[in-house]
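thought: user wants a sequence for this fold. calling inverse folding tool.
action: design(structure=
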């Protein structure tokens, strides 16, 4: 009698717990489904070495064209297929790659004209790797199909839009044993690499708290004359969804400083609040005629979203997002430890006892030229190795090139990529989880464990030379 009552209480409280932590918006549950028999954990996955990497790309708009041009420069690549909805964009990228390749990219197949031509490309060309630089809603299905057709998938940010899509990506990667990396280029910025190196060297002691953001006024994407590009699809997300819709540029780097999802610590819960939604509706009124599409759209997503992640160790990560307000660009990029703080925008360092030859104590920041000795001592070895080339190649100050160079290097050497499929999912999961939290008045949401507990044995990202 007693036993069955205890069981009843246990089951009832369990079901209440699972109800309160599952989404009424998407039907998502934070329970990890079991790994299917035969599937393999991909945390430190090493794919067979590739001497030459046959690369195809889907989406050569604003972002994809730059990515494929840079890849075309890197030794060991052959660009074999380019797909976009638009013929002129495909032709532009093909011409660039042929010119850059100096004989290396002579047979680039072109696919354009309808939504599904990329599938024909995968079937016919059978590339080793596929770069996906399309609108957000297409990422998951394109990544999944690429892996099923035998290619490693490299996806622009965010890796997917819903938690369900993220699980499908994880399951397909584990089943096909193909990499699926979300290409978080910001992890390869000079400042981010410097901070990663300093955190690993324990210069700021035990890590306690981080601040990450994507604050970038992108209202002009709503302008009429834009017949191509993000203005065609991104504002619709801001109209319909309320949360942090673009978390990974800020979060990716700080997650790696803290070794989240890699042995030491893990994403646990998130709470999220948004401000009122005013700026987009105002912009539409000011810029466009009364009967313009944007004046018939109600932008529901709050202008600024603020979320806080709590990790298993109890650390906190503030993540903010604002693409609507008139303020300067920032990713915050702050990491605070027991012995000091490193911060971005602009780069600043405060250390207990002071920064040698710059500050006397931690009450003021060392910045600008005062940081010369810090860069000298702690610039990441990868940055030092690739600095000259990265500066020449550019792409967000060189970070794009370093990322692409590392992707090619890892595939050639058959070593784990710097960002695994689970990191792409955890970092992107902030969007759907923050939306649920906002809709529930800031209720904490638990992160699903995409690794199913295997994060505990995934090695921290090394400071590679
Ligand atoms: N990492 C970064 O710094 C960075 C910078 C900009 C954009 N992005 C990301 O890159 C992605 C693309 O952004 P963008 O600015 O290039 O957008 P965009 O709209 O300029 O380009 C997307 C392209 O995808 C093509 N496309 C869409 N559906 C297709 C289909 N079914 N088949 C073939 N092609 C298709 C479109 O024709 C378009 O040319 C987004 O995920 C964005 O968030 C990342």
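)
observation: tool returned 465 residues.
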């Amino acid at each position: 009698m007693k036993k069955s009552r205890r069981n009843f209480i246990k089951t009832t409280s369990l079901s209440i717990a699972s109800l309160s932590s599952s989404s009424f918006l998407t039907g998502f549950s934070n329970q990890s489904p079991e790994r299917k028999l035969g599937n393999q954990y991909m945390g430190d996955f090493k794919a067979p070495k590739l001497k030459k990497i046959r690369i195809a790309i889907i989406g050569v708009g604003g972002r994809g064209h730059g990515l494929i041009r840079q890849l075309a420069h890197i030794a060991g690549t052959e660009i074999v297929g380019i797909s976009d909805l638009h013929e002129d964009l495909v032709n532009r990228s093909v011409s660039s790659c042929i010119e850059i390749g100096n004989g290396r990219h002579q047979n680039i197949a072109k696919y354009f004209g309808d939504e599904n031509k990329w599938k024909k490309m995968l079937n016919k060309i059978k590339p080793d790797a596929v770069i996906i630089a399309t609108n957000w809603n297409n990422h998951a299905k394109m990544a999944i199909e690429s892996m099923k057709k035998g290619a490693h998938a490299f996806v622009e940010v965010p890796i997917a839009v819903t938690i369900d899509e993220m699980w499908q990506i994880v399951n397909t990667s584990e089943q096909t044993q193909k990499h699926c990396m979300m290409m978080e280029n910001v992890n390869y910025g000079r400042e981010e690499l410097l901070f990663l190196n300093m955190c690993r060297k324990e210069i700021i002691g035990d890590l306690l708290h981080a601040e990450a953001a994507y604050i970038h006024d992108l209202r002009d994407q709503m302008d009429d004359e834009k017949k191509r590009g993000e203005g065609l699809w991104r504002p619709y997300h801001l109209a319909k969804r309320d949360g942090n819709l673009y978390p990974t540029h800020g979060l990716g780097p700080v997650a790696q400083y803290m070794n989240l999802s890699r042995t030491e610590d893990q994403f646990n819960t998130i709470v999220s609040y948004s401000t009122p939604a005013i700026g987009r509706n105002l912009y539409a009124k000011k810029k466009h005629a009364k009967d313009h599409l944007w004046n018939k759209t109600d932008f529901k997503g709050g202008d600024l979203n603020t979320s806080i992640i709590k990790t298993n160790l109890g650390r906190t990560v503030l993540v903010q997002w604002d693409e609507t307000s008139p303020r300067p660009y920032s990713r915050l990029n702050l990491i605070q430890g027991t012995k000091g703080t490193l911060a971005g925008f602009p780069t600043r360092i405060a250390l207990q006892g002071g920064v040698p030859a710059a500050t006397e104590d931690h009450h003021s920041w060392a910045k600008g030229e005062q940081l010369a000795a810090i860069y000298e001592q702690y610039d990441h070895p990868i940055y030092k190795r690739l600095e000259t080339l990265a500066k020449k190649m550019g792409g967000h100050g060189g970070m794009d090139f370093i990322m692409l160079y590392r992707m090619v290097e890892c595939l050639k050497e058959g070593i784990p990529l710097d960002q695994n499929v689970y990191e792409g999912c955890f970092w992107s999961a902030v969007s759907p989880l923050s939306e649920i939290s906002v809709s529930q008045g800031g209720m904490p949401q638990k992160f699903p464990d995409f690794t199913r507990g295997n994060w505990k044995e995934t090695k921290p990202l090394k400071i590679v030379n």
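thought: summarizing for user.
answer: Here is the designed sequence. The pocket of nicotinamide-adenine-dinucleotide is lined by residues 58-59, 61-64, 83-86, 89, 115, 118, 133-136, 138, 156-157, 185, 229-230, 396 (CB under 6 Å).
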